[in-house]
Design a protein that fits this description.
Length: 109
């Protein structure tokens, strides 16, 4: 039996040029996390640079029933993150990929 389950990963580094403290960085990150969870139904985590007050590395993960839908959701997330450049600068998108779960492990075993 073939599964159509897919996951999408979005890993990005953000720069907060106006932040002078960790608290000033955390407010827009918390807002971004809330939008990822509610609007995009995605998991969000700050996965690097937590103790650096002007930079953050974020990971957003989506699950979908089709590869096309997972890719569309990642594109929507990427556009949304770039649209918030009034709060932070997207220094770089490290990874943006969607893959069928079948390709990651053998689910028929």
């Amino acid at each position: 039996m073939r599964s159509d389950a897919c996951i999408g990963l979005y890993l990005a580094e953000l720069h907060f040029p106006e932040a002078r403290t960790l608290k000033e960085k955390r407010a827009p990150l918390a807002s971004l996390r809330d939008v990822m969870q509610s609007r995009f139904r995605a998991s969000f985590s700050e996965v690097g640079l937590q103790d650096v007050w002007q930079r953050a590395r974020i990971l957003v993960v989506v699950a979908s029933s089709s590869l096309a839908r997972a890719r569309d959701r990642l594109d929507d997330i990427d556009r949304y993150v770039h649209a918030r450049e009034y709060e932070f600068v997207v220094a770089r998108v490290v990874l943006k990929t969607a893959d069928p779960v079948d390709g990651i492990w053998d689910i028929d075993s």
